Automatic annotation (TrEMBL):
Transmembrane segments: 20-46, 53-71, 193-211
Assembly with partners or alone: Interacts with DsbL.
The organism of origin for this protein: Sutterella massiliensis
UniProt cross-references to SUPFAM superfamilies, sorted A to Z: DsbB-like (SSF158442)
Main localization category: membrane
Bilayer disposition of the protein: Multi-pass membrane protein
Protein name stated in the entry: Putative protein-disulfide oxidoreductase DsbI
Amino acid sequence: MSQNQLSLLDRIGNWEQQRWPWLVIAFLSAALVVIAHNVFQVWLYMKPCEQCVYIRFAFLCMTFGCLFPIVCPKSLVCRIISYVCGVYGCIYGIMCSVKLQSIHAAIHSDDLDAMFGMQGCSLQPHYPFGLPLEKWAPDWFLPTGDCGYDNSDVPLGTVLSPLQESIINMYNDAGGWYLIPSMKFMSMAQCCLLGFSVALLIYIVLFSGMLKKRLAAK
């Protein structure tokens, strides 16, 4: 059967045994963590909160899992490890994003009682499996900010470049980070939630392609 005659799921089953899908997922997941740290935290002085660093961990779970099929894409075991790590990272990231969005909505609500009983923001993180990431890489995984507040905290005496100052003022005027600050459209938590949801869908589609190909081979 030619490639043109294959169904979409059959093609996905073939792609799933190649390196490029896993390279794309690994690159995007790692890039988002690097951007969160180097751009927003270091360059724009936005301190990460507890849920923010958990979200970084979730993206790194996806990156870590992809390393196995990148090394050996034909190995079923390597791909299964990637699915387990990836789906776990997506679900964990979705949970953290939902919690962060709930805190964000409560903080920016006009209801004074909206924060009553709200939990999930601490300066002492507790990572899954007891991983002491905040000790291994504190600049990346130690929360130093408050959940729901995305404003820049520029140290006194810091000389900002014109570009830095304009971007910081744009976010501060909007009351935090938004995909479209002027419209307050899509908070950081909502963008992360969308990203993890799309990634989970991709994992499900890839796994379905693999399953169909294995069933057809029997």
